Task: inverse folding
């Protein structure tokens, strides 16, 4: 059975290490869907698997998304800060420092 796009997104997100982030667009690009950032967001919003660290995915500007704030404010930010990710005064993450660059690389 062929793996769905959503399942492929989840497999990538499971690989993001603690203290690092990826972007919706970065994940879409690795999956060959260069303009699919929104679809990656849909996949993460639909995810019910607690083993998929969806909180480690941010937008292209290093901003968190309010979708995590359903029950409380700054949930995504709090989860990332607990992993050592720092936010600047404008509430963004320095992607130069925290972006996971190993995305899409396969072990030999």
Result:
């Amino acid at each position: 059975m062929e793996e769905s796009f959503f399942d492929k997104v989840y497999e990538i997100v499971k690989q993001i290490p603690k203290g690092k982030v990826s972007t919706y667009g970065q994940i879409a690009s690795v999956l060959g869907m260069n303009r699919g950032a929104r679809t990656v967001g849909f996949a993460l919003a639909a995810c019910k698997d607690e083993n998929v660290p969806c909180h480690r995915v941010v937008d292209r500007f290093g901003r968190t998304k309010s979708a995590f704030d359903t029950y409380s404010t700054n949930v995504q930010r709090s989860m990332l800060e607990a992993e050592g990710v720092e936010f600047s005064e404008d509430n963004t993450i320095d992607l130069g420092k925290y972006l996971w660059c190993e995305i899409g690389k396969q072990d030999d």
Summary: The longest strand covers residues 22-23. The domain at 5-97 is CATH 1.10.10.10 (Arc Repressor Mutant, subunit A).
